[in-house]
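During the first year of the project, the team set up a workflow for recording each protein of interest as an amino acid sequence followed immediately by a discrete structure-token representation. This format lets reviewers and collaborators read both layers of information side by side without switching files. As required by the reporting guidelines, we include two representative entries from the current panel. The first entry is reproduced here exactly as it appears in our internal archive.
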Amino acid sequence: MSARKLGMVTFRGLQLAFIGLVVAHICFRWDYSAWWDFLPLVLAYVVVTVTNRVGGAPDSPRAAREPVAVAPPVTGRWSALNSPADRTPSHGIHAHGQTYAIDILAEPEPGSRPAFRWLWPLVRRPQDFPAYGAPILAVADATVLRAVDGQRDHLSRNSLPGLLYLMLIEGSVRELSGTHRILGNHVVLDLGNGTHAAYAHLQRGSLTVREGDRVHAGQPIARCGNSGNSSEPHLHFQLMDGPDPDAARGVPFTWQGIGVPRNGETFEAPSATAALG
């Protein structure tokens, strides 16, 4: 087990210890200060911070890599969210190999995607979003290393109460349950030269590949869904230097013909064949 993997396992164990101490303190009415219950939680975040620096930070000169040029993972009109073009780590943390990850949402027409609401409706069906069911493509000739299916596509969390529930409750439970619960249905491809592509939040039952398959750039491998730690149907895409998000560091990417779209930027993705040509 690598040091980074061991660090993530320890991180989750300390989080569970924090919950256990709080419950035990309430049940047994221990007389020491409740602040001591937070010690495992503090240690958990010290561990994950140190873990993400093991072997060099993802953005340090020792670990830095030139962006890897790959084809777009989608076709049509999309917009970017949590883009590494605006900041790194793009999602606020280096963990799970997502230093340079990006989220993209389908925008076939302006205003076609249901907007965020403060209160109502609390949730929407995945089918209400244009990204749901959109084809997801291999970004290069590659070998399928992971193809995880079977997790449900849940309702959206794109209202303020729904988002708070995702961030404060659901997200924490998924974190404790392991990376696979955060990614939802997902695929990891080995692109060669120490580069791996991960696709997350895929639609249940939509995967068209299995572990060990060879795929070609532009080949459909799944459909966009709303599984895992997701507020609405979208694709989470990232490159990593290993197949296991718990142990890998993020790798910067650029989409051929597009580059790296900034937050809120709308872009038109051609077919992978056209992008590579």
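The second entry, processed by the same pipeline in the following quarter, appears below.
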Amino acid sequence: MSVVRDLRVLLRLHNFRRLLAVRLLSQCADGVYQVALATYVVFSPEKETSPAAIASAMAVLLLPYSFVGPFAGVLLDRWQRRQVFLYGNLLRTVLAAGTAVLMLASAPDWLFYASALSVTAVNRFVLAGLSAALPRVVDDERLVVANSLSPTAGTLAATLGGGLAFAMRLVADDSDAAVVLLGAFLYLCSALTSLRMSRELLGPDPELVQPRLASALSSTARGLVQGLRHLAERRPAARALAAVTLMRFCYGALFVTVLMLSRYAWSTTQAQGLAVLGLAVAASGAGFFAAAVLSPAAVGRLGPFGWITLCAAAAAVLTPALGLTFARTPFLVAAFFLGLITQGAKIATDTVVQISVDDAYRGRVFSLYDVLFNVAFVSAAGVAALMLPPDGRSPAIVLLVSALYALIALALRRAGRRFT
């Protein structure tokens, strides 16, 4: 199967293009907003950043969603997904504008984090909904290619958004509030773009959901148990989710390491640190693009589990080879390959979940997917806070991550033979 031919076919599908446009604008706005948060929290001259401070910020922004994730899944399996994209992005427009006001007013940290948390929480609905809606606009035959193009293009859009944020800071005299307002405008554009699709197009099917909202909310716990039971019955999906969650933990630990190295070891000023971090993000984005090109052929040849296994094994070798130097250039090379590896594994996992899980449960499973990602990322930041010195140079972190990648590859070896 020709990847280029399938990409051309996908891009001729009107509804796929429209869903992709919603994703690109939404995730570009995410990139703008996240860079503004990073510069405000991590790289502000008046703030003395530590691994513990970064871990605390991640916990505040990500962990609370883990408690509302089950509700999000039930609602995603009830609400029309087109409406989630419309109203979710409109809400984020208002909330992001509120964040900008708080920055200008030098509001207390707790109020700033509450505003940022609200934007992040809505973001989980939108991203999970985009993944759950994809099979409604693409046939099974080209789902792997769609999973290569759509999430990867979204990640590249987020990277572009980060670049726009850096440029905006230069134009707006280092104003993080102006950058956040740019993100709010892009959220508005994403909301308006979703109106190009019909309300019913993206599901879920009305006959598969409960007719009353009160009934849906009151049965959230039961619905979550049913979703978990459904996932347990789809062992390929459960195994893929377990593997990609551990890989997310590894990525999170290395991300905090790069943050601290950029802040202290590789730069003497906040501006230099931001520039180095921007290079690392760009290198990782290039890896995401490479994953989009390579993954369809790799999954076709090796099967999804074979591709995930190869990604984990390659990471186990490359992480210590490049990371133990703690030099900028080898770390940038590592950022490229880990971007490829992480996104490649995610593409394969998305495909396994979408094919294995019934549409009536897909929203709940992708919400669980998001929760697992958040918990893994925050847990990695917590471990890094305990192990990292102030300058970010920790051989123990690098070796721990390498060992985890190796264990993932070994654990999936049999699964790769069984599910191809």
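For the second entry, the following points were noted during internal review. The chain is about 85% helix and 0% strand. The two ends are 17 Å apart (CA to CA). Both points are flagged for discussion at the upcoming steering committee meeting.
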